[in-house]
Amino acid sequence: MALFAFMCHLFGWPWKLAVYLMNCLFKVVSFLKELFCIPATSVKQNNKSVYRHQIPSSSRIYSSGQRNAQLFVIETSEECFQVDLEILAAESEYFRALSQSQMKEISDNFISLQHIPSEAFDSVLGFICGESIKVNEENLIEHIEVSSYLLVPSYLQECLKFLGNILDPKNCLHYLNVAQSLCCAEMVSVVQYYLAANFMELNKITWNLEEDEREKVLNIRCPDPGQICIIKKENLSSGALVELNSIRFLFQLSRGEASTWHPTTQLPFVAEKWNFSTAVLYNYLFLIGGYKQKVKRGFEFRMASFRYNPFTDHWESVSSLIKRRRHFSAAVSQGYIFAIGGWYLDCLLAPDVSTSLYTAVERYDPWEDRWTFVSSLPFSDFSYSVSMSHDIPLTASLGGIIYVIGTVQRTAEKLILQYNVNTDTWTELLPTLTRVDASMPNLYFFGATAGCLYLFGGNNQENMVASFSLKEKRWQDIHTVPKLWLAGQGTISGKHMYMVAPELNSVVKMDLKSLSVQSFLPLPFQGSYEVLFELYFPKRVRE
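The structure assignment produced for this chain is given below.
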């Protein structure tokens, strides 16, 4: 009114004209409210003020069909809906809390949600009543925001399933930023899972994530514990390819009391003879070595390396080693894979006194998919037991240090060399393990966990276990265990060491605390030279 008085004074309009214009404006506003906003009128009923809303005939009705169903008018951005609040309350924590409150909206049977897009709200109502969601890439974010705001987890879950199916390298960062801006933890989790499932395939994206964000993604990809797995890392016996197909698998150990081996994925090559060393990095399995293939003039060993992703059940070829080596150790440290020792790949003969190990050490960068040379193994008066049954030399990794066990030739003492990944230097870790302490000409396993190095070896009469405390820098008590021939590459999982005993054709398990050894589980094939490792499989892959 004051505004019209000012305009009359400013333009010299008659007062009656101002009143007429004002009345016209009120009529227009009233008409628009009646058309879109459902105006309310107050009447007296039983001495109480009761509000009745003029409901447009075009408003949509969502009712349970019960006679006593009480319909509420819900006003959204462009449309109004008549809804049985009990239907909404059953699926939405927002409406459940509202229905149990004493707020004015409940007594009025009128809820104003003008900030909620009508199309998204209609889709939510339809879904609650049994219809399919009406989501596409254009309105997905809006629907996620609405279902998150109204706390409708069932609808949000359907939206997130749709999101999971459309994520790709081009849009994943966009959706991650949107999810974080919406503070929608469920949406953030979906995008993070996509990044985790394709961590190395999206290396240009994951490498450039903020450090804390990349850590969250890695925690999704590499939870503890994983599943014990086994593959035949070498096969030198000839046979029909059909017969060999049954052993060219990665076998996964099921959890529970009735543990059994299950073939999970077939190895990514077809050959009758092969030799590979393995490494697990970022919960990817790397096969590094080669296999025998036919050429114009006979056969030759082809160098090959593969990477297996248990999240996607997919194999991919990666760069091969620079040196043609077999029976080498592969160690993982600081995000790299190191190839240490081994001898010439193409030689299928058993090693003898003339067999020399490679001193060259190679480092694999998974982000660049490239091998480079680093500081070589220091030899001098240092030797390694050459064997067809184990990777040479035995190595262990803990933190940023790689440990290698060998023998001092003059005294037969066991000496540990340590390689600092950050400084690219080799040093001795003293003291040595003397023959008086333990007569251990045969070495089977060398591993690290919880600040301690474990060495498993033996002689013709017995096996024994020695442990080295990295904190106290000393060898601890030596324990004898039952005589067993162990072969291949073992692993430490939790408080146990696992390794293959070919004479038992089974995996043996040693408790690292009590040092008790027991036969654990028969092998899924005839044992000879196998590797055990841990790999985490998402539930859908395990099933």
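Interim note for the steering committee: Residues 1-20, 26-55 have pLDDT under 50 and may be disordered. The first helix runs from residue 2 to 11.
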